[in-house]
Amino acid sequence: MKIVAVANQKGGVGKTTTAVNLGCALAERGQRILIVDLDPQGNATSSLGMQELEGESLYEPLLGGASIIERIFPTRLERLFLVPADLDLAGAEVEIARMNDHLTRLKQTLSILRSDQTFDFILLDCPPSLGILMTNALAAADEILTPIQCEYFALEGLVKIVRVVEQVRDSGANEQVEIVGIVMTMFDGRTKLSAQVVAEVRAHFGERVYATVIPRTVRLSEAPSFGKSVLEYDPKGTAARAYRALAEEFLKRHDSLASVRG
Question: Residue 256: its pLDDT value, please?
């Protein structure tokens, strides 16, 4: 099993969209996937049409009052599961900050899932901030997948999250964690800027940048409002095809850890 933090401190870069749709595409390919919604806004939860699960977030497990097992719910899709989020998580930020082990609460919470190997991949959908929940995710993760919007300030955002990762490593909370994957999102083939940004990011980060780019499409933007992934909402569209290609590339990168199931 591998824990992957889908993280970028900048909002609006397609982070939740990538966590949800990559998760769905991996489940479609036979992988057992758990998405953990760590954003108090609960966008991953509502994107899967499960916003009615109020009071079932990681709030209590993070504070030691319950097991994460009690917070795992099946979605409509076979092999795809969710730990939902709600506004209670915002309160957890404050309470966790007072604890001596405030950086490793999530790592401890997830430890039971590591031991029983129920899932092939756990995707942590991080909040767009540099707070306690984000640093907990980086401390708990085996690796980081960072979505980057194809815009002018893309590299500036990457530099910031690289610094945060270095701080987590230096703290001793997770000395091994690093950004191993970068996904370019909201690509607009009609503009030169998108292609220039992709080329620039690849020049700086090389093979860490996925070959698959995620296009900017209306269907991709519409899907969450219907509580569906784009693979359900527009299964033959360009965005769905892109996320299926991303899932294939993701599995090739992890082929020593997870085989494609039938």
Answer: 53
State mean pLDDT over 224-249. Answer: 97
Q: Can you give the pTM of this predicted structure? A: 0.93
CA separation (Å) from 149 to 26, 93, 186, 259? 22, 27, 6, 30
* Structure token digits, residue 73: 């719910």
Any residues with CB less than 8 A from the CB of 32 and at least 6 apart, and which?
Answer: 79, 81, 118, 119, 120, 121
The pLDDT tens digits for 11-65 are 888 899 999 999 999 999 999 999 999 999 999 999 999 988 888 999 999 999 8
Q: 5 vs 102, which has greater pLDDT?
A: 5
pLDDT of 260 > 50? The answer is no
Give the Cα separation of 233 and 244 in Å (integer). 14
Q: Which domains does the chain possess?
A: 2-253 (3.40.50.300)
HSE value, Cβ hemisphere, 13 Å, CA-based, for 243: 31
Query: Would you list the DSSP string of the chain?
Result: -EEEEE--SSSSSSHHHHHHHHHHHHHHTT--EEEEE--TT-HHHHHTT-TT-TT-SSHHHHHTSS-GGGG-EE-SSTTEEEE---THHHHHHHHHHTSTTTTSHHHHHHHHHHHHT--SEEEEE--SSSSHHHHHHHHH-SEEEEEEESSTTHHHHHHHHHHHHHHHHHHTS-SS--EEEEEEEEE-TT-HHHHHHHHHHHHHHGGGEEEEEEE--HHHHHGGGGT--HHHHSTTSHHHHHHHHHHHHHHHHTTTT-PPP-
Q: Is 230 exposed, middle or buried (0-12, 13-18, 19+ CB in 10 A)?
A: buried
